[in-house]
Amino acid sequence: MGRVVVDVMPKPEILDPQGKAVAGALPRLGFAQFTSVRQGKRFELEVDGEVTPEVLAAALAAAETVLSNPVIEDVVRVAVAPEVVGSTEPTA
Amino acid sequence: MGRVVVDVMPKPEILDPQGKAVAGALPRLGFAQFTSVRQGKRFELEVDGEVTPEVLAAALAAAETVLSNPVIEDVVRVAVAPEVVGSTEPTA
């Protein structure tokens, strides 16, 4: 079973109220080192079998037409997930 | 200027209605190859200067206490963004 990861972020020129809220909360909670936060979306798409180049191309098309709003969002990454088990482990 | 990326996904055992909605829409829109979709969040945290190991440790702490709800979500990745310009370019 393969997995494709799609990352979508608000365009830089678009106001991001969720990110602004997080950026405002972090210093109050002891994390003063972060100057700016932007919040986007991460999708994990599963396919039966291997992630072929065709699947990756379909994922890119889906990312640009279904998973993101191109007026306000950029697709920043479409990539094969390295391992299914790996995606539940934090890596610092 | 450094940037840390934090990815948060709903735990596997938690129902993900957003992902379910996307998974239902994809086949109707011509993307029948994807069997399952889960939707999570991606945060980009900016810092002045380099991303030091201390900054990364702070980002991990923030990810686990502020950016995610540990009851229903897993922090799946805390990593240095490869390049600031790179994050606006899709990579397939």
TrEMBL record, chains A, B:
Catalytic activity: N(2)-formyl-N(1)-(5-phospho-beta-D-ribosyl)glycinamide + L-glutamine + ATP + H2O = 2-formamido-N(1)-(5-O-phospho-beta-D-ribosyl)acetamidine + L-glutamate + ADP + phosphate + H(+)
Enzyme nomenclature, EC number: 6.3.5.3
Keywords carried by this UniProt record: ATP-binding, Cytoplasm, Ligase, Nucleotide-binding, Purine biosynthesis
Localization (cell): Cytoplasm
GO CC list: cytoplasm
InterPro entries (alphabetical): PurS, PurS-like_sf
Top-level EC class as recorded in UniProt: ligase
An annotated Gene Ontology molecular function: ATP binding
Highest taxon in the source lineage: Bacteria
GO-annotated biological processes: 'de novo' IMP biosynthetic process
Pathway(s) of this molecule: Purine metabolism; IMP biosynthesis via de novo pathway; 5-amino-1-(5-phospho-D-ribosyl)imidazole from N(2)-formyl-N(1)-(5-phospho-D-ribosyl)glycinamide: step 1/2
Annotated HAMAP family: PurS (MF_01926)
Functional description taken from the UniProt entry: Part of the phosphoribosylformylglycinamidine synthase complex involved in the purines biosynthetic pathway. Catalyzes the ATP-dependent conversion of formylglycinamide ribonucleotide (FGAR) and glutamine to yield formylglycinamidine ribonucleotide (FGAM) and glutamate. The FGAM synthase complex is composed of three subunits. PurQ produces an ammonia molecule by converting glutamine to glutamate. PurL transfers the ammonia molecule to FGAR to form FGAM in an ATP-dependent manner.
PANTHER family membership: PHOSPHORIBOSYLFORMYLGLYCINAMIDINE SYNTHASE SUBUNIT PURS
Family, as annotated: Belongs to the PurS family.
Subunit field text: Part of the FGAM synthase complex composed of 1 PurL, 1 PurQ and 2 PurS subunits.
Name of the protein this chain belongs to: Phosphoribosylformylglycinamidine synthase subunit PurS
